[in-house]
Amino acid sequence: MVKIFVITYSTYGHVNTVAESIVKGLEKGGVDVGRYQIAETLSDEILTKMHAAPKPDIPVLNPKNLPEADGYLFGFPTRYGTTPAQVKAFFDATGGLWTQQALAGKPAGFFFSTASQHGGQEVTVFTSLPILAHHGIIFVPLGYSNPHLFDNSEVIGGSAWGAGTIANGDGSRQPSEKELEIAVTQGERFAEVAKKLAA
């Protein structure tokens, strides 16, 4: 069975909530799912001062284990329109895989969280694409495959680039039902592509 890793970094828990719906979509799409998180680089003292959420009880992925999967969905919040330092450190540790092109030809996609509608959801993915290009990983966008992406009646995270949520600057807003439905769609669509590539 095709194996997909869902890999997240989440400070306040929003990305992990979206990931749960991503996993549901992948499972509906008929693939095996491995659920992992990226190692924290901040101290417990700093995280406490930030009022960060407790880390979920899921394993931390060692980058050297990435070749075990047939594809990847990465979820993380934006930091000024790019990846958080923790995610950058994770990818910086994949140099050995890059020299071997061990991940070339595998699909990957992204999902994300921002504080506001204009906090950089699309540009966060855009600035992550060079990582995929250097590894030869195939970017799989969500497209407009869920009708909620056409809905302008309320604040809805996500775009053609991937599922997403709006957290508010203080983290008070939780992912909406529509945002979670978009995430399920992304999981389903990604599973379809991953199975075709693996065939």
Automatic annotation (TrEMBL):
PROSITE patterns: FLAVODOXIN_LIKE (PS50902). InterPro entries: Flavodoxin/NO_synth, Flavoprotein-like_sf, Flavoprotein_WrbA-like, FMN_Rdtase-like_dom. It comes from the Eukaryota. It holds the Pfam family FMN_red. GO terms for molecular function: FMN binding; NAD(P)H dehydrogenase (quinone) activity. Residues 4-190 form the Flavodoxin-like domain. GO terms for cellular component: membrane. Belongs to the WrbA family. NCBIfam families: flav_wrbA, PRK03767.1. This is Flavodoxin-like domain-containing protein. It comes from Coemansia brasiliensis.
